[in-house]
């Protein structure tokens, strides 16, 4: 099954709720791909020896991997970290996350600055392009185990919005004018 994504409402209720717009408006894999968001569905039970994951890592140059358990019991300064993750930001590099257990939401901005909520569950590997505004939160299960992948040494530096002059943001926006409606390949 493909990943689920939808446009969000503007409610300030608990960030861990789905926040569907009314009426519900789902977002397709092609719409995500047009924003530069890539997706694979893998088998999280075999992640240590998964040939498809190895191929993705080799093809894209991801040579560093770590695991992160996010829950009140497993993450030091849980409330503070969750608040930081949910602050809108960009990165200078891609953000690659593979959900091994639990679930959570990545929210990304579309071309019109609307929030799209992407619900990740076990087996979902997503790549957010450098320069895209995004944030992360758990859902009401309050737990996820994520694999983080990087090219070279890991860099976790978020650049909180506004970042319109950041080189990664400028490059991200430039990609829309160059592609002029040509969707990226979705997996």
TrEMBL record:
GO terms for cellular component: cytoplasm; nucleus; plasma membrane. Fe(2+) binds at residues 89, 91, 95, 134. This is Acireductone dioxygenase. GO terms for biological process: L-methionine salvage from methylthioadenosine. Keywords: Amino-acid biosynthesis, Cytoplasm, Dioxygenase, Iron, Metal-binding, Methionine biosynthesis, Nickel, Nucleus, Oxidoreductase. The keyword Oxidoreductase applies. It is found in: Cell membrane; Cytoplasm; Nucleus.
């Amino acid at each position: 099954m493909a990943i689920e994504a939808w446009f969000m409402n503007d409610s300030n209720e608990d960030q861990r709720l789905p926040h569907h717009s009314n009426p519900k408006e789902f977002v397709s894999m092609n719409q995500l791909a047009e924003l530069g968001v890539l997706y694979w569905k893998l088998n999280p039970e075999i992640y240590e020896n998964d040939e498809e994951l190895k191929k993705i890592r080799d093809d894209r140059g991801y040579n560093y991997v770590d695991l992160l358990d996010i829950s009140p019991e497993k993450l030091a300064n849980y409330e503070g970290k969750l608040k930081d993750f949910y602050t809108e930001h960009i990165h200078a590099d891609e953000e690659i996350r593979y959900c091994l257990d639990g679930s959570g939401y990545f929210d990304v901005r579309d071309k019109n600055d609307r929030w799209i909520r992407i619900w990740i569950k076990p087996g979902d590997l997503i790549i957010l392009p450098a320069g895209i505004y995004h944030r992360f939160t758990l859902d009401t299960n309050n737990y996820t185990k994520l694999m983080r992948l990087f090219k070279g040494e890991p860099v976790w530096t978020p650049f909180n919005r506004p970042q319109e002059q950041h080189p990664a943001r400028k490059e991200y926006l430039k990609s829309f004018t160059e592609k002029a409606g040509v969707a990226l390949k979705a997996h």
